[in-house]
Amino acid sequence: MLISKKEINVRFNEVDSLQIVWHGHYINYFEDGREAFGKEFGLSYKAIFKEGYRVPLVHIDCQFKRPIAYGDPVEVHTSFVNTPAAKIIFEYRLYNSRTKEQLATGRSEQVFLDEKNELFLINPNFYLNWKKKMRLL
User: Which end of the chain has the lower number of beta carbons within 10 A, N or C?
Assistant: First the structure.
């Protein structure tokens, strides 16, 4: 299983009137996790664009477990979910780095579009080659 870990610094402007991180920022933390995964494992947005594809999100969900406060140390664990479908699936776990409490979980799905925004129903060759390199095929 491919897992990337990224430390997040919760900024003051991410906290709402309840003095906890506003729920929408959790999705941003997942994005930070996807970008860290891409850099670590060679599946960055830039690499995908270079191959002539875009990978828009078509589904994302978040399960909130514990609130996050300003100054809490947060670690995002991003796991690649291998599927034969022509999509990229990630699962996320947010933890308090200090207490190890689980703060949230989530999942996202992205599909492949070409430069004309046409949906690809089969895995692009570069993606299959990446999977082979990562020993996922």
Answer: N
